[in-house]
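Intended use. Records like the one below are meant for learning the mapping from a protein sequence to its folded structure. Do not use them to infer anything beyond what is encoded.
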Amino acid sequence: MNINHVIAEELNVKEWQVDAAVKLIDEGNTIPFIARYRKPVTGELNDEQLRDLDERLKYLRNLEEKKQTVIASIEEQEKMTPELMKKIEEAKTIVAVDDIYRPYRPKRKTRATEAKAKGLEPLANIFILQMSSKTSEEEAKDYINEEKGVDNVESAIKGAQDIIAEMVSDNAEFRNAIRNTVMKHGEIVSKAKNEEEKTPYENYYDYLESVSKIPGHRILAINRGEKEKVLNVKIEMPDENIIKVLEKAIITRQSNFTNVLKEAIEDGYTRLIKPAIEREVRNTLTEKAEDGAITVFGQNLKQLLMQPPITGRCVLGWDPAFRTGCKLAVVNETGKVLYTTVIFPTAPQNKVEESKKIVLDIINKYNVSLISLGNGTASRESEAVIVDIIKECKSKVEYIIVNEAGASVYSASKLATEEFPNFDVGQRSAASMARRLQDPLAELVKIEPKAIGVGQYQHDMNQKKLSETLSNVVEDCVNNVGVDLNTASAPLLEYVSGINKTLAKNIVEYRENNGQFASRKELLKVSKLGPKAFEQCAGFLRIREGKEPLDYTSVHPESYASAKKLLKKYGFTTKDIVSGDVKLSKEVKDLKNVAEEIGTDEITLKDMIAEIEKPGRDPRDEMPKPVLKSDVLDFDDLKEGMELRGTVRNVIDFGAFVDIGVHQDGLVHISEMSDKFIKHPLDVVSVGDVVKVRVLSVDKERKRIQLSMKDL
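Structure written out for the chain above:
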């Protein structure tokens, strides 16, 4: 198989682009590095295309490896034929190779292997050939052998049927046809183990849906119901039709063996093929559902991480609670924690006036202009207090409710203990609430991605695949934004291209021992950070006010000489970069000639101009800004028909959850998103989007809000 050719066709790109990308990957270059700094080599393949390419490359290489193993095993058995070799070489999937290999795989003890050991394979072959004029009993007489355990005609026929049943089961073409039939015409059926029991799975207590049409979120829900021993689940197959097709393929003429063959075929299907195909189909459905859910989770996570930071404001982080009190942390414009305390405005203490006075003093003393309130327990009660405080406050103060998913995971982590050794978990959580507003990306990378809470059924999925996908998303976001080398935490540095856990720790250690980095070149003094790692990471790390102004841009050090020639050609120096006075896009008319003159290529030159004109450019600035509030909306205030603005908190297969400021996110079902047909909610909204919604219904008892985005 020409792997690169296959990938080029699948991704709809040129084969030379795939050749170049594969070469770069094999040389140890990271996807973010290739996407950003090797555009001319790959023909500008972006990070998404490169991720897909890398995934397919791994799969197809594993497929080739599997084929070689199978070929070696069959050749060792001296059973290889040109026809079989062709089938293996043409197989497109690992499942197809497994199907072909099934008859040749060394088997554990089965009814068929026992029958073969008793010398009954020739009898089975006679039945399959259907050429003899004798009856099955007459043929079987010759195979009675008491020493081998074949005591009579019946046991000889039964043994031969076991061999035929396994032969039917091992046939790759049969299995593939049956698998396809079940995927097209099968039905997934779920029943309650106890119909009286109240559970979240009541919709699936007596449920049937076509295998070909069932959406991923329903598969995952049914799987979870089965795992929790609430549901019995099975795949209904068109058994009669399948058996008829098998009989037609095997029984080629009228003979005395027709009934014997029919019994063997039915046994092979019901005992061997059907349970295996049911497992395979359910695995396929689950895998597809997981892949879809992981993709949605990844896109949600990307939107969450890429939310614009709220810079230049002193923030009061507020971690609400009842009995243990609300933990507060004042965090200055640079993310430094200035002060922490605990107040008790909620039950059982209800020290509202005392708490308000403490918070007003904090606002005045530290010039707080924004309160970041976690959405956990006692959030609603805390919000009412915050609104009263804002009304009494002389300066302008706003607040925002932030999703505190993962905050408890972070505050109890080893990392949080190292970061805030003298704080308890509540104080750490309050500091995290504030920092999530100031720089969502820098703060959220400290939490395991799947704990951030923007997915569905994440705990039921293939954890390795989920972790890999989400890590890739975080890596792409971090490298897209760039990282301040002198302020970045070790967890943030870990996601930078070319930097692993050890190097991240060594960079922070070097910074603590030697002071701030003055230039990117200084990275080469960090323990274990060699030329290859430097090449991969340097362009993504920024230095403000360093020795080399180009270090504040994403221009790679390998292009510094060209960048300086460019600046000189148009009468600028590198010092002009910092002031933001360099304007080159209108000056550079002929990209091709200028690129040749300064020793680079057109693509790199275009990127270079954009970076030099806007040093420290943050792509998150283009994202929708979060909604800041100064008043409260209560659940009881909601009325049908009310129009509101809200922030999309989570997108799932069947809709989106929108925060409208009442501590209970409302659901916009996919059918209420647009008058036009949409395949997936992500076609319309993303996490962090600010949207207009209309209240359709409010269920106060179940705390459910139905919203619509239509006609707004």
